[in-house]
């Protein structure tokens, strides 16, 4: 476990890297099946989906991610439904550049943006698993997928902004006399990418509006953010916003939260071993190809607990299949941990749980307001509030997660 010389937030000084605002993201679930309790399903439970999306809106989330996989529901169609079922939530459409021509995707996104009056966002997934890419006919080498994503981004933006027709003869895409294309509701649509490879950092720093990370220890996230910012600065462009994803496990006391976390890890591990939940069937149990999962497993091998509340056992038991690191503790401890990441520069925080609907509701009631209250205090006073100092979590002297959970 990493132990700093001083608990983050124990002084009143707001660090210069701290984001002044934060927006929250969740992931939309189409049915009640979870990693804790897999339920056989044909895909979309419409009543559940409506209830889930309504819960996100009422809970105060700002965005919801519509994920993409070869065997999942189409992210564009689901995003369109979210746009019509909500008034404020911004749908983030996950798109893999191998699945559609960029000019068509630009048209689809601009249409969604107009239907939602400027709420559309796109998250581009270059692809980190050869077998999953091959399921939809993509055999491009992994190191070339980000080059394709770079060309894809260029063409999206040109399709939205060019006032005359244009042609393009690139490495991956070729066309003649396109345009002008269908325009978004506003000037453009935010483009997000993620990844931990060198290629991901280069393209993210030079071209993306948002760069996405999975939850990692604070020191590592800080270094990764600095790397992205340095690339953006060298390219003389605005720094991308930073998106960090966690899977919080909360309860009324830290002891109850850690007991729940250990119970969850056992159930999630069993689900993964059976391949019984959604895309887990696609992930496999071999060593992951993508750098993000490799890093998550490396962190898990070194320690289960980092910083105030970061827990890696959930990554270890799932072979780091997707965003899988948890924040464990009371709502106050988890909110303080989120503020720790805001302090190093994250301004988009994705929190989604394992008991999906109940967690989305509880985060909205008990976690989001605490984070926003802290940021409001800073805005009003220029100083930190007491949230971080009062709730040290794993920074507390003698902290022992195993003992709290009754694991020994």
TrEMBL record:
List the InterPro entries hit by this protein, alphabetically: Luciferase-like_dom, Luciferase-like_sf, SsuD_RutA_monooxygenase
One Gene Ontology molecular-function label: oxidoreductase activity
What Enzyme Commission number(s) does the record list for this chain?
1.-.-.-
> What UniProt keywords are attached to this protein's entry?
Flavoprotein, FMN, Monooxygenase, Oxidoreductase
Where is each Luciferase-like domain found? 40-347
Q: Does the keyword Zinc apply?
A: no
Q: What is this protein called?
A: LLM class flavin-dependent oxidoreductase
Instruction: Give the organism the record lists.
Output: Pseudonocardia lutea
């Amino acid at each position: 476990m990493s132990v700093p010389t001083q608990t983050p937030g124990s002084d009143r000084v707001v660090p210069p890297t701290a984001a002044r605002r934060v927006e929250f993201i969740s992931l939309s679930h189409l049915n009640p099946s979870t990693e804790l309790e897999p339920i056989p399903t044909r895909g979309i439970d419409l009543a559940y989906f409506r209830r889930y999306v309504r819960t996100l809106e009422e809970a105060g989330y700002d965005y919801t991610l519509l994920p993409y996989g070869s065997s999942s529901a189409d992210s564009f169609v689901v995003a369109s439904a979210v746009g019509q079922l909500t008034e404020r939530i911004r749908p983030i459409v996950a798109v893999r550049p191998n699945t559609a021509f960029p000019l068509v995707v630009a048209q689809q996104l601009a249409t969604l943006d107009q239907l939602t009056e400027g709420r559309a966002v796109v998250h581009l997934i270059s692809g980190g698993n050869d077998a999953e890419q091959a399921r939809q006919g993509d055999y491009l080498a992994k190191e070339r997928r980000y080059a394709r994503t770079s060309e894809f981004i260029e063409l999206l933006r040109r399709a939205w902004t060019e006032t005359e027709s244009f042609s393009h003869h690139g490495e991956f895409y070729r066309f003649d006399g396109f345009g002008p294309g269908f325009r978004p509701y506003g000037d453009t649509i935010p483009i997000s990418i993620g990844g931990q490879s060198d290629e991901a950092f280069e393209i993210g720093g030079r071209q993306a509006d948002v760069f996405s990370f999975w939850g990692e220890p604070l020191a590592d996230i800080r270094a990764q953010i600095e790397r992205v910012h340095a690339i953006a600065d060298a390219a003389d462009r605005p720094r991308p916003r930073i998106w960090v994803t966690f899977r919080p496990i909360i309860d009324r006391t830290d002891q109850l939260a850690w007991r729940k976390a250990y119970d969850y890890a056992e159930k999630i591990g069993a689900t993964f071993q059976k391949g019984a939940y959604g895309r887990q069937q696609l992930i496999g149990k071999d060593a992951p190809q993508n750098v993000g999962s490799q890093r998550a497993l490396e962190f898990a091998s070194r320690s289960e607990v980092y910083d105030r509340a970061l827990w890696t056992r959930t990554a270890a038991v799932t072979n780091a299949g997707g965003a899988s690191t948890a924040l464990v503790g009371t709502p106050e401890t988890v909110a303080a941990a989120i503020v720790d990441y805001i302090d190093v520069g994250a301004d988009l925080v994705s929190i989604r749980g394992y008991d999906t609907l109940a967690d989305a509701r509880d985060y909205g009631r008990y976690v989001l307001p605490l984070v926003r209250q802290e940021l409001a205090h800073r805005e009003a006073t220029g100083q930190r509030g007491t949230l971080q100092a009062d709730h040290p979590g794993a920074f507390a002297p003698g902290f022992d997660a195993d003992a709290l959970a009754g694991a020994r």
